[in-house]
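Backbone Fold Data
Goal — fold tokens
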Amino acid sequence: MGKSSRTTFSTALVNLDTNKAVAGWKENIFSSIDLTPGKELVFTESELTAEITRLQTEYDAQAYARNRQAEYPSLLELTVALYDTDDKSAVEAKRAAVKLKYPKP
């Protein structure tokens, strides 16, 4: 799993919380979820598993975007490219290479 299983688990719980029992949680850790007094989380294990799977699939589908972001030209490079025609073509070439390396699915 690429994404923290704790974050995925706590997000799944919040998504399944039809009673709006969760008032918030601390540091994305399930053991410290705060429940609204008098409320409870109600869901089945299969619902939780399905939601965790859905969230992980959604996260995995965006791997190309995270990889692109890590390799795209920096803000400094882009700023310089606005003022220098030679650098602009180099930045465009770098972006094109990154897009080719990490195509959209």
